[in-house]
Amino acid sequence: MFKKNVVVFIGLSIIASGLNYIIYPLYARILAPSEYVNITVALSLFTQISAFLSSIIAITIGLSKSERPESANEKIELLQSFLFRLFFVLAAAFLLASPFIMRSIHTPTLFALPIASMMLFSIPILIVSGYLNGKGYMAKLGILTVISAGSQFVIGLSVSLLSHNGLATMTSMVGAQALTIVAIYKLFSKSQLPRIFEPLKQPLAATRGKNMGKLIKYTSLASLGVMAISLIQIADLFIVQDLVHADIKFYTDIYVISRIVFFAGMILIWPFLSEISLNHHHFNRRPFLKVIGYFAVITLVAVVALYLFGSQITHLLFGVQYKLIEVQQIGILSVLYKFFLLVITAVILYFIVLRSYTAIWFSAIASGIILIFSKLIDKNSTIFATLLDMNIIGGALAVIGVILLLSTPIRKAIVSPPTNSP
Q1: CB-based contact 58:126 (threshold 8 Å)
Q2: Phi and psi torsions of 246, nearest 5°
Q3: What is the mean pLDDT of each run of 10 residues along the chain (422 residues)?
Q4: Residue 131 in contact with residue 88, Cβ under 8 Å?
Q5: N- to C-terminal Cα distance for the chain?
Q6: Are 317 and 371 spatial neighbours (Cβ–Cβ below 8 Å)?
């Protein structure tokens, strides 16, 4: 699994993830507590909403693997053109519904504008990510992640220091994304990246030919499915916010610490997806079990660190020294929840690469169960009891996902077998 270019990708991705992660403790020190909570919740919402675009990366990987270069680029460009139009409409709908949505997560409505803008700017970045992954250009993909994370780190941190305002800081990240798009197209100009603007000039009817109808239908459903599963990755943060007796600042800090497990795990998902075979399912089982093993090692390291040094870690990162027993109990449960969601996410993205509808119905069932739980929970519950219940649900869903992946024959998983014809 760990070829030279994959090792380079992992190294660069660790740097990028480190920048993405360390920005939260820095915001905790720079911004007022209310601004810090607002930007953490808003960025988490954006991260998870935009994570539905992971489905686009997975589909682009499949196209890059299964088509001739010219045909793959043409289909990817048409798909990107359709997605721009689709998510412009979705972003507009999100803005119209933002007073209700943002109020429900106790965040100012104005944060919806940078969230919607960042959704749109994410599309070309993630399309290029999938293209590079599918072609096996993992080192270039690593460079892309560093550019994206670095620009947001430098620009976001600079604006936060100057303004001490969460909304201004998040708005500046839209500019960082635009800068990233320009940089990667300049840097990888010889890599025949999918074009952005030319396909947008074509009428929407152009996407109906060239067998694009089924692809667009599946992409739309897969995007919604991954968005649903992505939202339950931050369900613990939103659910704890609604608990009557919860210390939301304490859990926000714990949540940020536990996110390192998810950041680290996602780095390893992409090499796994790059390596899978579209035609031989049995070949994919060993890489999948390997990546689950890596998730487990990352989780174990995080659990041991919190158990032994939890109080010191929170003081180092956030300047607040919580009781060790509190960090141990809540932190370990929060980390385990991220582990189970990593497994579920890996399963869903795997089936999306195969263009299997298993990804969509499994995502719908998993997110539906968590949603029902969030509505039925006693608001007077403790954080510990709530997270314990969420881990039981997450663990059961993760086991079901593993069984699905290991037992589904390739001939039944694929919606339409990829061909080498345009």
Answers
A1: no
A2: -85, 145
A3: 73 87 86 86 73 68 65 71 76 87 83 87 81 80 92 94 92 92 89 70 57 75 79 81 80 87 84 77 84 94 93 86 90 94 92 87 92 87 91 95 81 42 33
A4: no
A5: 30
A6: no
Instruction: Report residue 326 as tokens.
Output: 């509190």
Q: Which two tokens stand for residue 405?
A: 């992946």
